[in-house]
Amino acid sequence: MKDEEIILKINQTLEKIRPFLISDGGNVDFVKYEDNIVYLKLSGACSNCGLIDYTINDGIKELLINEIPQIKDVKNVEP
């Protein structure tokens, strides 16, 4: 799969979870995909939530890796 296809799939996958984040006052934005790592920026209530690591690692990262096997890691870009 080409990087362009992976980026499209990343954005489609983020659209599936975005409503849950928005319902809690937060959101997630795709920043970039580089060297099999997805860089995201959490915003709103998610940006300074005490559970941000859980949201990234056990939620978003798990979903993205399950949907797109090429992804090796997901990192939050600090605001």
What does this protein structure show overall?
Helix content is 47%, strand content 27%. It is α+β, with helices and mostly antiparallel strands. Helix 1 packs across helix 2 (52-67). The mean pLDDT is 91.
Descriptive tags:
about 80 residues, alpha+beta, GMP Synthetase, Chain A, domain 3
Count of separate structural domains: 1
Unreliable segments (pLDDT under 50, ≥5 consecutive)?
Answer: none
At CATH level 2, the architecture is 2-Layer Sandwich
Give Rg in angstroms.
12 Å
Contiguous helical run count: 2
Q: Which homologous superfamily in CATH is the superfamily?
A: Fe-S cluster assembly (FSCA)
Total beta strands? 3
What's the arrangement of strands in the largest beta sheet?
Answer: 1-2-3
**Coarse shape:** globular
Distance between the termini: 30 Å
Written as H for each helix and E for each strand, in order along the chain, the element string is HEEHE
From the 3D structure, determine the CATH topology.
GMP Synthetase, Chain A, domain 3
- Give helix % range: 40-55%
Beta-strand percentage?
Answer: 25-35%
Structural classification = alpha+beta
CATH class: Alpha Beta
Describe the biggest sheet?
Answer: 3 strands, mixed
Q: What's the overall average pLDDT, rounded?
A: 91
